[in-house]
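Same chain as my last thread, 375 residues:
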Amino acid sequence: MTVRDLPFDAVFSDESGGNIKTPQSEYSEHGRFPVVDQGKALIAGYVDDEARVCGSGRPAIVFGDHTRAVKYVDFPFCMGADGVKVLRPKIEADLKYLYYFLRQVGLPNAGYDRHFKYLKRITVTLPPLPEQRRIAAILDQADALRAKRREALAQLDRLTQAIFTDMFGDPVRNPRQWPNAAVLGDVADIVSGVTKGRRLNGIEVRPVPYLAVANVQDKSLNLSIVKEIEATEDEIRRYRLQKNDLLLTEGGDPDKLGRGTLWQNELPECIHQNHIFRVRLKSDQVHPVFLNWLVGSERGKKYFLRSAKQTTGIASINMTQLRGFPLLVPPMPLQLEFASRLEHLASIRSGQTRALEAVDGLFASLQHRAFRGEL
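reply #2:
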């Protein structure tokens, strides 16, 4: 079997030019033609203008110049306005094979700099066309398994949201008329965390793990990278996290206000930085799991958007606004039942997550072997 190694420019034609680009401000939620930009999602929005369809609707690979995202697009689409590179083969080659090849290329991460210049320096390995199609078919099957696992996890997330609404009703309208006179400051102690770069004036310190904004996701933690900070024993005592502390980010994108999760002693000792609020319940009126979901619900989002300070697309809330968050207080037995249901679903989700990790590992192995000629 003859395998060729060709420079990028000998394989790919950059067909980005000559197309009408669609700025994000013109995206619609529905329309005749999808818009593909450099974001993570395959489809970013829709437009109705047929004149914007890229390259007569022929299949293409879309590369995000800033994001390094690689997408296979086999339907008529319109280009996003910034950082979109549309690639098609200029020689006889299988487009899906080329897509998988580009996905496994390790480009340097230059932040929001442009990355197409790095992509153009690569060498493309091309086995004969039938072998390209065979490899693409195998990777397609493995990728389809990954997609099914991810969809199963998404279904579990939707089920959890449905359970919340079914048990408590719409938290914005409160049709079941749960008591709503209390605010968060009535039932919880709320503090912000330790400040980086503060003056310690020679006081003895020791390193301790601390949570930054990137660690706190919507109802989950990302502990892949946990940094340490030098802190005094008094600071560690004041800011040390305890089981069922609700962690909320101070700010970020407006649609992410109220983002937070519960701490479940994932680390034996950990504190938090000042851009994260720690909410520690001091009342038995509210269950921490219910509180997490209430704060992250539409009720929370609407309240924080009304209250937040917004500058250049970034929104932030302060301690006073968080303390003033208007609660709903359903009966505790109902809150306990909700927490029990979520615990059961979390067990199922954990199994699905492990299965996805196994499939991801299989895909990475297949991909590695495929482009080393070992598949």
